[in-house]
Write a structure and sequence with these properties.
CATH superfamily of the largest domain: P-loop containing nucleotide triphosphate hydrolases
Helix content: 25-40%
Radius of gyration: 26 Å
Number of domains: 4
Number of strands: 21
Distance between the termini: 54 Å
Number of helices: 16
CATH class of the largest domain: Alpha Beta
Largest sheet: 8 strands, mixed
Strand content: 15-25%
CATH topology of the largest domain: Rossmann fold
Structural class: alpha/beta
Amino acid sequence: MDPLPECPLLPFAGMVGRHRVAAMTSPTSPRANLRFDRGTLLLSGVEREALVSLRTIPWEWDPRVGAWRCEAHLYSQVRALLEAGAAPVDDEVTQPLRVGWPTPALPELRPDQQGALQAWQKAGGRGVVVMPTGTGKTEVALAAMQQASVATLVVAPVRDLMYQWHRRIRRGLGFDAGILGDSTRDVRPVTVTTYDSAYIHMAELGARFGMIVFDEAHHLPGKVRREAAVLCAAPLRLGLTATPERSDGQHEDLDWLIGPVVFRLAVSEAKGRTLADYDVVRIPVTLTEHERQVYEQAGQEVSSFIREQRAEYPDYGWKDVCTDSGKNHEARRAHKAFRLRKSIEDRAQEKLRVLEDLFRLHAGERVIVFAGSNAMAFEVSRRFLLPTLLSHSGKDERAQVLEGFEQGRFPAIVANQVLDEGVDVPAAKVAVVIGGMASTRQAKQRLGRILRRKGDVKATLYEVVCEDTGEIERSRSRRRSDAYERAIHRRV
């Protein structure tokens, strides 16, 4: 797909409703018309021959309405091409309202944040800003919103982040934003929503906003969530993420869904300056004799089944085991054996002993424990009488736990994935990872929870892994992140 052209930063000043631009039609032909229709653009009154000047747009003829149709995200490109024409066209794509900020109180941007904002503006108001967690991507977005002063939709991956954005907009720009999601439908000129709600409602709302902000933008290229960008006509697009790369390679689609990466700040550049200085300490532990015996036996069962299948199907692999587990008894047994191995890694008893030692070592400090499963999170919670934050925890429960943690009523909290992305975790400078996936994204996000600078306090992330298990490989994968360079190995 051809790159989208630059568009001015403030394209909507003083424009509301219908206006005229030029199109390639003859003086005697009816006036061309461009309008928004359910996540697409409809261009009528233009003959096929006239579309030569618009050939970079993938138009399709829709005989049901007698007009040319294309995806709404191409609006700025369509409009630029029409304006280069010689005859008038009625642009009836609903123009977003201009927004005035009642009591803006944004902090002055640091040089790196200012650089990110200027890079986005220079790119025509389209692009992705890549900055580590804790370096203030939200402030960059709020400053961009303040300067654009146009109706804006902010899209976040989860409800917690949606409400967090609502609070930040009210505190920083003095605007009580609308909320679309979590059983609430309150659409205003500035609205916050989730990815799931955005793609569901975008066919209806796609022309109401002049700017759209995608927080944790690496979520957008998914097969369904990308519709939130495809069905939206907003010319100004800003993506925020600490980790844009995806294992499926679909992060390349961000170039046309939002825009190219316009600014990138490495963790090493921010460490000790914008971010707190930190250490990553890797602590190896061993399985008990009984755990090792069960672990090896389960591994042999998985290997034996796959080996038998490969005698007939040479390319048979783990994905095939998962597929066959619903219809084949032996495949189901192999699948259960694999899950048993993973649960032993996640819930090794030695991890709990090390965790107890770390709590003693950091007595009086607030600690976040990242578990690899809900079962392990509950086990840690029961043993040390700590609150948990899990995917099914309610909004009020999460707020109470985070408030208690911030105020020091809870010396530690336990989470499984809930705190991996975006949610502000105040005052914590110690984290312990006792389980998780192999992705460098998760590694960076978890580290980022403790890197918000507070004076010269140094942060420490402990990674507790079982030796001679699959956790070692997952740990090595996470170590490929520049954030984990020069990790310290230690036995506790």
